[in-house]
User: What shape does this take?
Amino acid sequence: MIEVMIVEDDPMVRDINSKFLERIDGFKLCAAVASLDNARKYITIKKPDLILLDVYLPNENGIDFLKWIREKNIDVDIILITADKSIDRIQEAFRYGAVDYLIKPFNFERFKEALLQFKSRHEQFKKNQEIEQPDLDRLISNPGAIPQSDDFAKGFNKYTYQSIWNEIEAHHVGDFTADVLAEKLGIARVTVRRYLEHMEKEKKIKKQVEYGKVGRPQFRYHKL
Assistant: This one.
């Protein structure tokens, strides 16, 4: 279970982000605090794996907290969640090791994408002592995970695509069905099937037809 601390002074936003987190398997909220003083205290007690960090806090700046974490050599990853859209701030965040940057307001799909991307890297790094370049490239940039064709742009949402693909990569070594993915991700079954058909055309997955004694045939998929 990945332990997460939320640092956000707005109680409504803090509550929304906490509820978003509850909807994603594999994550547990260990603390939700409104100030950097409390964040510094809890980070030594709770030792979270990930911090969802706001930039604008009363008389404080989340980037200063990020710098303090790096100065203290604390092993924790940071996702910035903020209304700050300035390029200078974004560059500064990444220079000090932020793994993602969400600009408010954002939807659940984008939040989920950030968490699942982190989870994929976290699990890979935790179970492997070494990694080959192609696997590292995929974890860093996830090349090819989101197609850029015109057909994709016209008919699909890249964050929904990414959520489905992340779930397939993380949890489905053998066969799986659209129904299983739909239930796991909270996405309509008809939507999941449409994305799976698209992935099959990209030759990322293969579909098999399973005929039962009664009812319609069931489609099963596996990753190539």
